[in-house]
């Protein structure tokens, strides 16, 4: 492997001159720069990453905190990760994936491991925020806490997504609607997206005066079956569902079919999920699509902007887009309606 000394000898200059050419710390003549670049190409020299980081105070690495906590859907998490990796690669950065939670943030922010951070699985009152605010590395959150602490955030506007999904069913004439939501573990952690989703759904139902029910659902076949049984027991007149649980979605549809309620003949469904999940169902599902990869790329775009100008902090919420796929049946709507709901379930 070629060394910086080999490059210096081939170019006929000192090692310090090669170092200046690589770091840009001091001006050198154009002729000397061309000789050094030609020597680098001929020898196939690659600067040592650690030495480059010491010389430039940069690592060209973005840290991605994606803690794999209970209740998270790894398939969806990896779509966000793919977006971050793609955006980072386009901007000349590598990505260090951090899947643990305890102690990792302090270790990363107190060292020179990364130039900046993207932080996922954000809670309403996230304990990581004060440390991120103090950190010398800029950070972008994928998620929206109750108080962003001045940090930059990007996410789908889940409150509007919940409202859009509910209103699609209300506009179709449905007056008894259940939200099959995130797992109990996600809800109990007060994860931001789950609470915003529920708030938007409940707000739309109450504004329209329709009966609603919110049921946290384990991300499994058994969890989906239990939630469907609960919905049918508490709201036997249900004719429509909003499902915000990618893993449970196919099992929810299957359980309703077993109960003699097919989709969309007897039960209409709107999902809030990535597009590939919605189109992979036996009955393609009308959905508010979660553009996970796009949000990951936006996070990196915001991050590179922050590295250039730390005063560019912002909150960016992506507007929800509903795609029709035929899982909503239009029904005749009776006048008026009654809000019964399940207050305990409706408030995570």
TrEMBL record:
Designated name of the protein: LacI family transcriptional regulator
Keywords annotated in UniProt: DNA-binding, Transcription, Transcription regulation
One Pfam family of this chain: Peripla_BP_3
Cross-referenced CDD domains: HTH_LacI (cd01392), PBP1_LacI_sugar_binding-like (cd06267)
Every HTH cro/C1-type domain range: 3-46
Gene Ontology MF, one: DNA-binding transcription factor activity
Domain of life: Bacteria
Gene3D superfamilies named in the record: 3.40.50.2300, lambda repressor-like DNA-binding domains
InterPro entries to which the protein is assigned, alphabetical: Cro/C1-type_HTH (IPR001387), HTH_LacI (IPR000843), LacI/GalR-like_sensor (IPR046335), Lambda_DNA-bd_dom_sf (IPR010982), Peripla_BP_I (IPR028082)
Region of interest (Disordered), residue spans: 326-348
Domain (HTH lacI-type) ranges: 2-56
